[in-house]
Amino acid sequence: MNKKVLYPLLLLVAGLLFALLLAVNKREVAPDPYEPIVPTVRVVRVQTVVEHLTVSSQGTVQPRSQSELIPEVTGRVVWISPSLVNGGAFRKDDVLLRIDDADYLTLVARSEAALMRAESEHSHASDELKRLTSLHKQQLASAQLLDDARQGAQVKEANLREARAALEQARRDLSRTQLPAPFDGLVRSEHVDVGQFVTRGQAIGTVYATDFVEVRLPISADQLAYLGLPISTRGQIDAPLRPPVTVAADFGETRLLWEGQLVRLEAQVDEQSRMVYGVARLRLEESDDTPLLPVGMFVHADIRGRKVDDAIRLPRSAMRDDNEVLVVDAQNRLHFRQISLLRLEHDDILVSAGLKDGELVCISPMQTVVEGMLVKPVILPAEK
């Protein structure tokens, strides 16, 4: 036989015999049992708490009372208080400025002399009226003379009243040569100096009170419901309903806090920002720990709104689409649960209904969730 045919046939027969030998002597392999992979999830335990809904805002500190310093008389400035400088502090009724009073002293003296003359003339006219009245009763004076005496007495009485009024006016003008402070406060600006001639009605400075300051705070319309105020509230808020306000300002690495109240809401909604502006008022009481709150300072404010008794706070990662959360039951199985969302915050959500105290809520992000799937929960400690 030809070798080219014999060798391939021998190799083919050997291969078939080897395959038959492997098939006859194959090993029995037992399959391993299937164990499903149970995902591990983080869960938190539901706790009902009492929450005060807080509205955050920011604004600039403004004085509650601000006045222009305006002299009521004309003259040359002869003295200025050291406090009448930008930033100067003063107390109520402190004299801030004096105007030359020489002309007003002269006017008072002339008014006093005019009053003495009017009193003398009035006294003489009264005596003359009494004398002519007596003579007329005795038919020793005519009715014409009595009428002239009565008219003269009335004219002198009018002159007397005019002289008294002129003296009072002169004394008031003299007292107005000293400009007193209307309240305890600080000087915001001043533009007057010694020797300057000022006129009545000319503004020479601006001062503001330091007993209270106000902060104008923008509040979105949907956040008004969190404050617990009647929807019709505008203007002054009744004292029992005023929400507390905490104002914070940073001084370097130190944050200082002041307490106040939301005292009023402005009458209309801002057309550009769609915000309602509330005004917080803060009493300023300087201490070693807390200085006065400077006017013009930009501050952050937290307005404490209405109280919710049975609120549930959860991390924002717990909420899924359509206001749903994943609840883990006693058999460690996941279930979808519809909730009533009270409020969305930066990192948390507040739930008003749909969960019970003590239930476990999944907060792990899961791409694929099947109703009733088995999980391995890891309970995270509650945040304090």
Provide keyphrases for this structure.
single chain; 384 residues; alpha+beta; Elongation Factor Tu (Ef-tu), domain 3; OB fold (Dihydrolipoamide Acetyltransferase, E2P); five-stranded mixed beta sheet
Write a concise synopsis of the structure shown:
This protein is 24% helix and 38% strand. The chain has three helices and 22 strands.
Could you explain how this protein is built, in words?
With about 375 residues, the protein is an alpha+beta fold. It has 4 domains: about 40-50 and about 310-380, conserved putative lor/sdh protein from methanococcus maripaludis s2 fold; about 55-65 and about 210-310, Efflux pump adaptor protein, beta barrel domain (Elongation Factor Tu (Ef-tu), domain 3, Beta Barrel); about 65-100 and about 180-210, RNA polymerase II/Efflux pump adaptor protein, barrel-sandwich hybrid domain (OB fold (Dihydrolipoamide Acetyltransferase, E2P)); about 100-175, Helix Hairpins. It is about 25% helix and about 40% strand. The protein has 3 helices and 22 strands. It has helices at about 5-25, 100-135, 145-175; strands at about 40-45, 50-65, 65-70, 75-80, 90, 95-100, 180, 185-190, 195-200, 205-210, 210-220, 235, 245-250, 255-270, 275-285, 300-315, 325-330, 335-340, 340-345, 350-355, 360, 375-380. The strands form 4 sheets. A 6-stranded antiparallel beta barrel has the order 2-11-15-14-13-16. Strand 14 (about 255-270) and strand 15 form a beta hairpin. Helix 2 runs antiparallel to helix 3. The N and C termini lie far apart (about 95 Å). About 20% of the residues are buried.
